[in-house]
Structures are given as structure tokens and as C-alpha cells.
What does this fold into?
Amino acid sequence: MFTPYRYNDIFQWSLEAFENGEQRSLVQKVCQEQARVILGRYDFVLDELAAVLLVEGCLSGAEVHSLIRQALNETGPDWRLSACGVK
It folds into this structure.
């Protein structure tokens, strides 16, 4: 399962996990490509979010999260928040 990380987190992890610079570069490249694939799969969500932002001008994090869940047709409890201990 994909765990969302910021690129800096992946970079730091690769420095700690691999002594070989070539291995680090390969891991970083694979992670970036995986992120592109995942974002590409859900580009319609980003389009919808951008459209709402154009109209509203600004949204809170909770509003963005809600819009993304609606666009993905998620209706049950949010496993991401549960995994982070947020209720």
C-alpha cells in the first residue's frame, strides 16, 4: 500500500538506508515515478479541487480533505485519519 511521504522524507530515508549513491538515486527515482502514477490516476480530483479554489479563493485543510473524499466517492470512516490517531 502507498504511504504518502513528502519528497524530503524519501530523500532523508534513502540517505539513512543506502550507503551507495547509485542505490539512493534509484530509490528516489522510483518513488518519484510512483507518485506521478498515483497523481495521474486521480488528476480529476485535482481538477475538481482547482475549480472550487477558483470560485472560493481559499479553503481550509478540512474543506480540501472533504472535497477530495467526495471526488473519490469515499463515504466510510477515513482510514488515513484513523491510522494517524485522528478522530
User: Anything to note?
Assistant: The CA atoms of residues 13 and 29 lie 13 Å apart.
